[in-house]
Amino acid sequence: MAFSKLLTVLSIVVAASAASMVLHERHTAVPSGFVRRGAAPANEMITLRVGLKSNNGAGLEAKLRSVSSPGSFDFRQWLSMDDVKTFTQPSADTVSAFDTFASANGLVPTVISPNRDWVSITLPVSKANKLFAAQFDVFTHPSLKDSIARTLSVSLPSELVGHVDVIHPTTAFVAPKTRLLSSERQINVRGPAASCNSSDPLGVVTPTCLQELYGIPTTPATQSPNTLLVTGYVDQWAQSADLAQFLKLVRSDIPPSTTFTLLTTDNGTNPQSPDDAGVEANLDIQYTVGIATGVPVEFLSNDFPSALLDTTTFLDGIDNPPTVMTTSYAYTESFFGLSLATKICNGYMALGARGISVVFASGDGGVRTNHDSSDLCANNTFMPVFPAACPWVTAIGSTEGFAPEKATNFTGGGFSNFFPTPYYQTAAVDGFLDTIPGDFAGIFNKAGRGYPDASLQGLGFEMVSGGEVTNLGGGTSASAPTFASIIALINDRLLAENKPVLGFLNPFLYSKASSAFTDVTPGRNSGQVCPPSSSAFDAAVGWDPLTGFGTPIFPDLLAAALA
Ligand SMILES: *[C@@H]1O[C@H](CO)[C@@H](O)[C@H](O)[C@H]1NC(C)=O
Ligand SMILES: *[C@@H]1O[C@H](CO)[C@@H](O)[C@H](O)[C@H]1NC(C)=O
Ligand SMILES: *[C@@H]1O[C@H](CO)[C@@H](O)[C@H](O)[C@H]1NC(C)=O
Ligand SMILES: *[C@@H]1O[C@H](CO)[C@@H](O)[C@H](O)[C@H]1NC(C)=O
């Protein structure tokens, strides 16, 4: 009795002793845009999610490499929910290390993910500060409606090092903003099914225009297990009435009652009234339901950025997940912090292994994150965005004009500072780096994951929001759902021939499918606000970090997928 009490007392002393703390993550300054408002109240309760280390992340990565590489013996033999779990769940040692720490400190962890790799703990701020050598302060940001509690630095007691990947929220400063690219022209009604008008290089983009430009079929899909998931974050709500009006206007060949299924996590909602219309959500829904003809579309509504985690853990727990997921949000990679970005990115690796094609918009600030003011134009240090820069997602950039297409100035592209160039794209990236002049002014990580992987139109999308028809839909937010729809339509053809779906796309895109794209060679991604003379990348022959391999040619992509 006395002995075990002594042990407990000792372990508290060790856990609380500063000498045993190991710095885990730290910002040297408050990330730009955030304002510190003072210390978080000491006795306020805070819920922290603790990401526990998977027992075999390297094994999952190797397995994914095999199942996604054309020519391998198990090509496209995607893993089941339980197969993935055998790799991602924490080891017994890890669980025991965390449970010992928790009980020594009077904490009760709750498992919050199907793979058991996330637990949550609720504790007073003062205790969180002490246990993790943190200083939680309250921060505000113009794009966040609520203030957030964050710390510039977080440490782990040494006995948790190697067992805990990340504690969230601690050092992640994320304030995603939905991007609406402003356009001078607003239209009232653009007639049904308008083609691309190549004598009007910045003309309106409609589903018919995209179908003609990329050879996308209009015939309905037939395979019902093939669903396309659209994520909706940041209070963005997709409106059924707007969708019906849109379909009547531009897809009169399909029933205007064609709609989407609502899914929610975190008590997400999807209120329906013109005042609730979210242009981003409407754009994403209209250019999935309107392009992926006949493919069942789901809309998942929840809050960002914990929503990125929740989306993954939600999908980890369902037997028949969607085959494609598209997300039109991006934020400065460095502000996520390495540990959270890595954990989220590994979550996409697990989804890819299950056969889900995870598609992200590449961001709308060119080489400078989601940049929309001129203050950074003179700064030659490029700022990549996440999740697009995660090697396990397929990142989609934007083009404009029709004959030929060129990279938009806002198309997000560059190289990750967190993730190294993945095996599947080394040749493509090396080829691009050879085109950069010796006196290139931009500063970036040449050894990083290059993005985007592909691109398509991203300016002047005709859409309906709050009952109004506009051509304001734009950004890589328009390109990503359209690309995801193309993948969903190809999956439909594969399933109809009893073949597995495309799943994690990139190894296929960078090998067999690389010629199924129209190379886009003009353009420079200096951003919408910075002068074209500011440092940025120039599009080039072959893969480049503005448009990836270029814009898809549906029949060629389908042929490569079926081969
Ligand atoms: C195409 O664009 C040109 C230039 O803006 C315009 O004059 C013409 O009417 C357009 N054609 C159609 C079919 O809309
Ligand atoms: C969802 O709502 C229920 C009931 O109001 C509440 O108990 C729960 O904490 C909420 N969950 C989240 C994640 O906000
Ligand atoms: C340029 O941007 C980088 C990346 O955000 C930042 O670290 C650096 O301090 C900036 N330099 C100047 C001169 O503002
Ligand atoms: C970026 O491109 C848009 C559309 O082509 C154009 O209107 C805008 O002037 C460009 N921005 C700059 C700073 O050149």
The CATH architecture designation of the largest domain is: 3-Layer(aba) Sandwich
Largest sheet: 8 strands, mixed
**Strand percentage, roughly?**
15-25%
Q: Decide which structural class fits the backbone.
A: alpha/beta
Describe the structure.
With 563 residues, this protein is an alpha/beta fold. The chain folds into 2 domains: 12-54 and 89-168, no CATH class; 184-562, Rossmann fold. The protein is 28% helix and 20% strand. It has 15 helices and 25 strands. It has helices at 2-16, 57-68, 81-88, 92-104, 125-131, 207-214, 240-250, 279-289, 306-316, 333-336, 338-353, 426-433, 476-496, 506-509, 554-562, and strands at 21-26, 35-39, 45-52, 110-111, 118-124, 137-140, 148-150, 153-157, 164-168, 228-232, 260-264, 297-301, 324-327, 331-332, 357-361, 385-386, 394-400, 406-407, 414-420, 448-451, 454-457, 461-465, 468-473, 517-518, 551-552. Strands 10, 11, 12, 13, 15, 17, 18 and 21 form an 8-stranded mixed beta sheet that branches. It has a 4-stranded antiparallel beta sheet with strand order 4-5-3-9. The longest helix has 21 residues, at 476-496. The relative contact order is 0.13. Residues 266-267 line the site of one 2-acetamido-2-deoxy-beta-D-glucopyranose. This is Subtilisin-like protein. Its cofactor is Ca(2+). Pfam families: Pro-kuma_activ. GO terms for molecular function: metal ion binding; serine-type endopeptidase activity; tripeptidyl-peptidase activity.
